[in-house]
Amino acid sequence: MQNVAQPYRSVLYIPGSKPRALEKAQSLPVDAIIFDLEDAVSPDEKATARALLAETLRATDYGPRKRIVRVNGGDTEWGAADLETFIDVAPDAILLPKVEDTAVIADLAARLKGETTIWAMMETPRGILNAAALAAAPKMEGFVMGTNDLAKDLGSRGRRAMLTSLQLSLLAARAEGLICVDGVYNAFKDEDGLRMECEEGRDMGFDGKTLIHPAQVAVANAVFGPSEEELDLARRQIAAYEQAKADGQGVAVVDGKIVENLHVETATRLLAKADAIKLLEGA
Ligand SMILES: CC(C)(COP(=O)(O)OP(=O)(O)OC[C@H]1O[C@@H](n2cnc3c(N)ncnc32)[C@H](O)[C@@H]1OP(=O)(O)O)[C@@H](O)C(=O)NCCC(=O)NCCSC(=O)C[C@H](O)C(=O)O
Ligand SMILES: [Mg+2]
Fold it and tell me: Does the keyword Metal-binding apply (predicted)?
């Protein structure tokens, strides 16, 4: 079940093969890191990346940043050794690529140690069609949209073609209380394009955006974090609803719009998220 206050505004991929990037991540203001052994690492670097990442995670304090390790798939020559290694390292989560059925999740769930949870890449047509079952599988905590692989399998172009898959994954995630993070924006030097895509993802309901470069972090944190205006409205909604209740009413009005219990729940969650962000940024 999702810890609603834990922010996942910015979730940065770091190739497990790059020592400089692994070091740099300790000081980046990201909410979570995906340490990648899959697509960001070339076949001839897989074994050294696995060893480097295991050693780094055992020795390094990444502070409050969630540590998620993306392993290679079970159908590759590296998948089994990746899992064996990182079940033992016990990061916050293990992210499985190209997940299509619940068996692979159930197998991993039975082997996990400590508090490690499971995340799934949602990036194949079959995986998207099975989203509800995947979300309900044991130890599942989050979905990450893999929009590059999806576009490849669909033969599609552009964001519009992604919408059904994004929404199906979000629906399935929310039905089970999971985190759901949007796919990457490949043009990492195009800040305006990134901002637009972050805003679209935020409005759809995603918790945050996966990122590929440190230059993308500030935009994702800003777009997915609550603004001062939103926080001010949330506080006024809660106060107005409390007053309405004290007056024997079930509904308040703020800025010409009704406020009911459900809006107060949303407002309370927003304030909790802001507090969690403050804590994280002060850490
Ligand atoms: C995209 C990059 C290859 C660009 O690398 P580079 O040209 O080296 O960037 P810079 O010179 O601008 O780097 C500046 C400094 O920032 C550090 N850096 C760069 N990227 C990262 C990172 N991701 N995390 C941490 N630090 C990073 C550099 O070391 C430089 O540091 P300094 O020496 O102090 O100046 C590169 O950014 C990159 O490899 N990005 C990650 C790519 C990746 O992870 N791809 C796989 C995930 S995407 C995917 O698979 C999605 C999904 O599966 C799907 O299907 O959609
Ligand atoms: Mg992918």
Answer: yes
Question: Residue 1: what pLDDT?
Answer: 42
Specify whether the CB–CB gap between 109 and 137 falls below 8 A. yes
Residue 183, helix vs strand vs coil: coil
Q: Look at residue 6 and tell me whether its pLDDT is greater than 90.
A: no
The rounded Å distance from CA 12 to ligand 1 centre is 9
Identify whether 258 is part of a domain.
Answer: yes
Q: How far is the C-alpha of 26 from the C-alpha of 32, rounded, in Å? A: 11
Are 21 and 123 found together in one domain? yes
Ligand sitting nearest the alpha carbon of 15: 1
Q: Are residues 85 and 189 in the same domain?
A: yes
pLDDT at residue 26 above 60?
yes
Query: How many residues are listed for the chain in this entry?
Result: 283
Residue 273 pairs in a beta bridge with none
Query: Quick check: CB of 184 below 6 Å from ligand 1?
Result: yes
Is the ipTM above a cut-off of 0.95?
A: yes
C-alpha 81/C-alpha 72 separation (Å) is: 9
Supply the Cα-derived Rg of the chain in whole angstroms: 20
pTM (2 d.p.): 0.96
Report every protein residue that has its C-beta within 5 angstroms of ion ligand 2: 123, 146, 149
Cα 241 from Cα 252, distance rounded (Å): 5
117 and 215 in a single domain? The answer is yes
Nearest CA-CA partner of 191 in 230, 168, 238, 223? 223
Pair 129, 173 in one domain: yes
CA–CA separation, 42 and 54 (whole Å): 17
Q: Which domain holds residue 30?
A: 10-224
Ligand 1 neighbourhood includes 25 CB (under 6 angstroms): yes
- Domain at 22, CATH number: 3.20.20.60
